[in-house]
Amino acid sequence: MAKKVSRRFQALLERVEDRAYDPTEALNLLKETATAKFPESAEAHIRLGIDPKYTDQQLRTTVALPKGTGQEVRVAVIARGEKVNEASTNGADIAGSEELIEDIQKGMMDFDLLIATPDMMPQVAKLGRVLGPRGLMPSPKGGTVTFDLAGAIAEFKAGKLEFRADRTGIVHVMFGKASFSAQDLLTNLKALQETIDRNRPSGAKGRYWRSIYVAATMGPSIEVDVNALRDLKLNEAA
């Protein structure tokens, strides 16, 4: 059964042409099509020429968005001893040891990001079934397994995001708010593109970038000209 499209969404769809837009043009259109009654996020959906079922074609890394995410990130930290106090002192919203692990096992999920110190990972591993499906499991690649709690908390609160390619080779990333200026969105999108290029999996063969679409949370997808984005110089996006 076909999903019914609202009149609002149908009107927005008619404003998007079936072509790849220049990056700035695409982001201006994203802003114009963010007409929901709540503050919408700006999302990027990037199809890459990779098959993540092979270990040398997996992509999981972090990006520091220069203009931030536009949202408050609630950080929880699992550590022990003085490291728990260090986490609390440096801005963690929740910090604890075994008792925090127990709380999470019981269903407490009042956080957006979980950081753990390496010595706590054997105990944190038992949370895999709870955290894994939500993408919250700490990982060294994601920068969320570390003894440098002050640095990690500061970075993630300032706009650092972890992302990965899903099993079909598509990366879904929120890169700001639709209320950001088109220039700030462009700066963040450029940082994301450069991070994906810099972390190209060793097993990726042939054409790496297949397509990139941007959209507001409740808006239509807008195709971005991949080559124009990759050719954009940093000073142009600053």
Automatic annotation (TrEMBL):
InterPro entries: Ribosom_uL1_bac-type, Ribosomal_uL1, Ribosomal_uL1-like, Ribosomal_uL1/biogenesis, Ribosomal_uL1_3-a/b-sand, Ribosomal_uL1_CS
Keywords, in A-Z order: Repressor, Ribonucleoprotein, Ribosomal protein, RNA-binding, rRNA-binding, Translation regulation, tRNA-binding
Superkingdom to which the source organism belongs: Bacteria
Tagged with keyword RNA-binding: yes
A cellular component term, taken from the record's GO annotations: large ribosomal subunit
Any one GO molecular-function label of the UniProt entry: tRNA binding
Keyword Ribosomal protein: yes
Example GO biological process: regulation of translation
Pfam family, one: Ribosomal_L1
Function: Binds directly to 23S rRNA. The L1 stalk is quite mobile in the ribosome, and is involved in E site tRNA release. Protein L1 is also a translational repressor protein, it controls the translation of the L11 operon by binding to its mRNA.
Similarity section: Belongs to the universal ribosomal protein uL1 family.
Quaternary structure and partners: Part of the 50S ribosomal subunit.
Protein name: Large ribosomal subunit protein uL1
Gene this chain is encoded by: rplA
